[in-house]
Amino acid sequence: EVIDAKGNSVIPGLIDTHNHIYETTTGFPWVVKSMPELLEIELRADSPEALGELVSKAVAARARQVQPGSWIRARLNPASVAVKSFGNTITRATLDRAGPNNPVFVSTRGGSVLNTNAIESVENHYGNELPDDYWMRDKSLGWSGEYTDFSRCIGLDLISAKPENFDTYIRGYFEVLQANAQIGVTTHKSHLQCESGFSASSHLARNRMLP
């Protein structure tokens, strides 16, 4: 078979050996609009005291906007201030007071804090108690040095994989794969995708929908 490339360059299929397609999906604006729980509040302050006060106000304000049980997530900066606030001005107890009826998760590069509802939601979903190694001191503070796995799997498994959201997530996953294919990436290799990432890619494969 001879194909006239009409002056275009022809290259072999590219292999992306490390990507986050499962996570990039949740960054599409239309996906976030379709799943408001994916919204992350961006907060910044110059001291742990100011950041702690800001987090409490922001979480309480968000709790008034969403339904009980809906996730409230915040990303804190700068990390050098945020990590000093964790376990001190921002704890499981302060987040419980600000959002008593919602799972609350705040994070920065270097750590995170979960309130009681967030801890229970994670443990109930996966059917395991979070091990002691997750906690910087102990579980009562809700302060963890983990920020990537918590953030990814909360967004994917506990929000995107809800029955009312999963079709939207799969569509986004498909569109990320399409965008990759359009620039010549024909094969991708991924690390742990949380449960819903595997489910989405398996669904596309079973239905012969992989671009």
Number of helices: 9
Number of strands: 7
The 3D shape can be described as elongated
Proportion of helical residues: 40-55%
Structural classification = alpha/beta
Main pleated sheet = 5 strands, mixed
Residue windows where pLDDT falls under 50 for at least 5 positions:
none
The helix-strand sequence is: EHHEHEHHEEHEHHEH
Overall average residue pLDDT: 94
* CA-based gyration radius: 20 Å
The proportion of residues in beta strands is: 15-25%
Give the distance, in angstroms, between the N- and C-terminal Cα atoms.
22 Å
User: Strand order, biggest sheet?
Assistant: 2-3-4-5-6
Explain what you see.
By secondary structure, the chain is α/β, with parallel strands linked by helices. It is 45% helix and 16% strand. Strand 2 (40-44), helix 3 and strand 3 (72-77) form a beta-alpha-beta unit.
Features:
211 residues, alpha/beta, 5-stranded mixed β-sheet, two-stranded parallel ribbon, 9 helices
Secondary structure elements and their pairing?
Layout: E1 14-19, H1 21-24, H2 29-34, E2 40-44, H3 48-65, E3 72-77, H4 79-85, H5 92-98, E4 104-108, E5 111-114, H6 116-126, E6 143-144, H7 148-160, H8 166-182, E7 185-190, H9 194-206
Parallel strand pairs: 1-7, 2-3, 3-4
Antiparallel strand pairs: 4-5, 5-6
Helix pairs in contact: 3-4, 3-5, 7-9, 8-9
